[in-house]
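question for whoever is on the cluster today: can someone run the full assembly for these? four chains, 532 residues total. i dont have access anymore since they changed the login thing
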Amino acid sequence: MNITLEQAQTAIAAAKAKAIKIKTLMNIAVVDSGTNLVAFAHMDEAWLGSIDISQKKARTARYFNMPTGEIGKLSQPGGSLYNIEHSNGGLITFPGGVVIKNAAGQIIGAIGVSGDAVENDHKVAQAGAEAVK
Amino acid sequence: MNITLEQAQTAIAAAKAKAIKIKTLMNIAVVDSGTNLVAFAHMDEAWLGSIDISQKKARTARYFNMPTGEIGKLSQPGGSLYNIEHSNGGLITFPGGVVIKNAAGQIIGAIGVSGDAVENDHKVAQAGAEAVK
Amino acid sequence: MNITLEQAQTAIAAAKAKAIKIKTLMNIAVVDSGTNLVAFAHMDEAWLGSIDISQKKARTARYFNMPTGEIGKLSQPGGSLYNIEHSNGGLITFPGGVVIKNAAGQIIGAIGVSGDAVENDHKVAQAGAEAVK
Amino acid sequence: MNITLEQAQTAIAAAKAKAIKIKTLMNIAVVDSGTNLVAFAHMDEAWLGSIDISQKKARTARYFNMPTGEIGKLSQPGGSLYNIEHSNGGLITFPGGVVIKNAAGQIIGAIGVSGDAVENDHKVAQAGAEAVK
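^ ran it for u. tokens below:
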């Protein structure tokens, strides 16, 4: 099962609405179940460095089917996945990437958000993912 | 002058409408005047390999302020720009990328389209660029 | 708004003058608001490895609109942006990169300096940025 | 023997003066005898894609101690250096890169110019190289 463009654009619209609500500027990326980019939006004046980070967060979440922040807990010095960020052309393992599921609970893609403190990135990603049914 | 997200989404919507009209499936990317990605859309079932190509076309058009196909005429064996594609992390020099201008005629970004014969890619890109004022 | 070559060369001249004053040898890079390289200078006998680092510092500062050292505080093990350096083709997050603003306070680019202890890198970058009006 | 920053800046100033004289906009890069970047200038509104190309031309000229266009004659389909552009992180083998010699005739670096038709790129590079003694 794969996310559609319509679903991806719904997720981006919901994420953007959340970003506006909490008064921040975000980059928002949605990938499909094969980690390929489906849709992307860079809010005006959002950080340019987060264009890449939002896409890497989305892919990282789908690569391992968990929120990016969970992987970051394991990739610390001494951790079991230390420096896993070197794989796959670069992972981002702090919060802001989450998988997207359909109504049946199947993973159909992932969303990555970057542009502010990671707690806000995560909240905005969550809002995007929840808008997809 | 830089394209806004609203303008980029207008370009993508117009390009997508054109793609539907000519019965094809496209990947559509819009970059700003600094070649940073602003918005992207992958139509359902469009070629996956064109996700990257559409982005490279958009950047290539802005890199040299001309339609990508014009560069391709010069980069052929024996041509004055032979193998220019090796620069900038990879250029795409066949048709499908064009600059986007504002009403005042200033270049504010570029659009790249990939997913079909290059003549169709170019037509769809053109439709997207013309929708921005 | 984008930095001009004249402004970039003014920044480099001021940074170089500061480097001479504090008796050190620096690499100095200036990027525009889209993170594209505008001007660069490698002082004779300065570290060769810092040619790349100075450019990455300039881009990193503009990517997130803050001094590079601020990002480095957050990217440590256990920090909220741990291993962010894996994004954007490689970031440099220790001091030496700062944004450049025009007289109106708008960000028009960034300067990155590398070649000595990071405190000196930062001082020299600051001197370069302040020379632009 | 290695080019100094002062010599590199002299080359860039002479190349820029030539570009202004023939009414064009150029990117100008100077590398040392080890192919490391010494100085760079992007003229306002010059092609962004030529920032990378000018640097690759300078390195290519020094890699093989000949004008870049000479290599391009040999890298054509069927030629003895077919597709040599794949090496060294990407070569540019059309005109616009030439070595820089000191008064004693020793190669001390190279200059690469990009921004217009390759004949003009070469002329501007030549003007830059000849300004160094």
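summary bc i know u wont read the tokens: DSSP finds four helices and four strands in chain A. The helical segments of chain A are 5-21, 50-64, 68-74, 118-130.
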